[in-house]
Amino acid sequence: MSVLIYIDQADGHVKKASLEALSYGAKVAAQLGTTAEGVVLGTVTEDLAALGKYGVKKIHHVSNDTLNHFDAQVFTAVIAQAVTAANATVVIFSNNVDGKAIAPRLSARLKAGLVSGAVALPDTSNGFVVKKNVFSGKAFANIGLNSAIKIISLNPNSYKVEAGEGTAEVAALNATVEASKVKVTKVNKVTGEVPLSEAEIVVSGGRGLKGPENWGLVEELAHLLHAATACSRPVADVHWRPHHEHVGQTGLAIAPNLYIAIGISGAIQHLAGVNRSKVIVVINKDPEAPFFKAADYGIVGDAFEVVPKIIEAVKKLKGVA
Amino acid sequence: MKILVCISKTPDTTAKIAFTDNNTKFATDGVQWIINPYDEWYALVRAIELKEKDPSTVLHLVTVAGADTDPVIRKALALGGDEAIRVNADSHDSFYIAAQIAEVAKQGNYDLVFTGRETIDYNGSSIGGMVAELLNLPYVALATKFDLNGTTATITREIEGGEEICEASLPLVVSCQKGMAEQRIPNMKGIMGARTKPLKVVEPAATDALTTIVGFELPPAKAGVKLIPADNPAELVRLLHEEAKMI
Description:
- The complex is a heterodimer.
- By secondary structure, chain A is α/β, with parallel strands linked by helices.
- Chain A is built from eight helices and 17 strands.
- Chain A has helices spanning 16-32, 72-86, 97-110, 216-224, 233-237, 268-274, 291-294, 303-318; strands at residues 2-7, 9-10, 13-14, 35-41, 58-62, 88-94, 113-118, 129-134, 139-145, 150-154, 169-172, 182-189, 201-205, 228-231, 258-262, 279-284, 297-300.
- In chain A, the strands form four sheets. Chain A has a seven-stranded parallel beta sheet with strand order 7-10-6-1-4-5-11, with helices on both faces. In chain A, strands 14-13-15-16-17 form a five-stranded parallel beta sheet.
- By secondary structure, chain B is of the alpha/beta class.
- Chain B has one domain (2-219): 3-Layer(aba) Sandwich (Rossmann fold).
- Chain B has helices spanning 37-53, 70-79, 94-108, 127-135, 188-194, 233-242; strands at residues 2-6, 9-11, 19-20, 25-26, 33-35, 58-65, 83-88, 112-116, 139-149, 152-159, 162-169, 172-176, 199-202, 211-217, 226-227.
- The termini of chain B are far apart.
- The interface between A and B is large, with 101 and 82 residues.
């Protein structure tokens, strides 16, 4: 028996979301009185044994060039072999872009119940129950899993990375790898920016900023805080900002530690995308803006006067001239 | 070419979220039901665009739900599509629903199955992947663009911090999100036409659910906003640093 964690990597580096999954999986293993093992697909430049510090005892590594490009079908078949090799009864994924593609496939393949978007450790006092986000962050559901193998897809930024001591045994897994049917032809990465889905701090702007020419304020504050930039739906719809920055019910749902909303009124659809943020700051000149009800800190004031002063204070705090 | 679009009904985006029966059921009183926005705005509208480009395309919609979903299906048919299939079952288990859709897809021999990236109520993001696995087809999740050239699809999908462009041959399952298409509003001709489009009801295939809903919880209420005077934004920075320890 074991708990198997899928370790997601990009360009040879293990993603932060996977470190959360590893820490979470190690805790689940301890809870069940079993060991945590990991599985990595493709060429990795990092020292996999060092991942032992997150509590994983053994890492199954399938190194095969086909696995350097993502294909959910191929990856699922390989992970299923790792499940057998590890004799796993629980499989953990991060509920990130690749996790969302593989975990459901593995669930259907193994007839293993899946909880996607888990936010807490399972409750094993009476069965196996996992809490997850539902209604776009407006509620939680406790989902019972009764299949022999159980799959949990953990929401990013909902479990803290816990590093201790230890090294993991790294074992090459000789798995059958099918030919990929999805051919990756191009990858466009936005370089020099913090990816929105992984950002710990997000600075976001809305219609209150009046036009794309005023986004310098948002970008400067984001840069100082090592934050990602985001926007509300109307802003993306009128093309002031690119669509991939749109957070909300129909855009990206994010859960950073700190979300700073500038000139966003906080429509219920916008809140659905950001209400899992740990701390919310709202800057809006309308004291009746609904966003203030969901905020932890607020300033009722004109963004064009307030934000430059915030930037100045952050510079002072960080010792930036 | 044959396209199958998976449709789910969800509460309206502004619906009040509350629970009944000792917090085991969603309180549906007074709730307006809509087509799940990801299914409608992105999956269905993109499929309609593909049919407009190639009018020989057969476009079917499928849902797994009770008869109370029929008005929502008619709304989807008012946007486009030739016919709808409703699998007469009520379930919140993704695997059960996916198994029903896979059965419909198998029998209809579709070249392309579109789903929305997730429903806005259960947020599972699971149906597309499960259907693909049950049909043993390739799956591209979280697609932002989809184009067809003969039987080769070019798809852009979201990745962390960017996008990836890939190619795959039909048949194929794709989950759709923002970028795929622009929202449409049904016109009068569409609404009238939808009334006479076939809506077939089929009974579910025998499948076991893999999950059960034990109960729901609402998040704890926020303590309330701490307002900082507009003339002293430095105080906000101090609080974020010293009190919230976020910066």
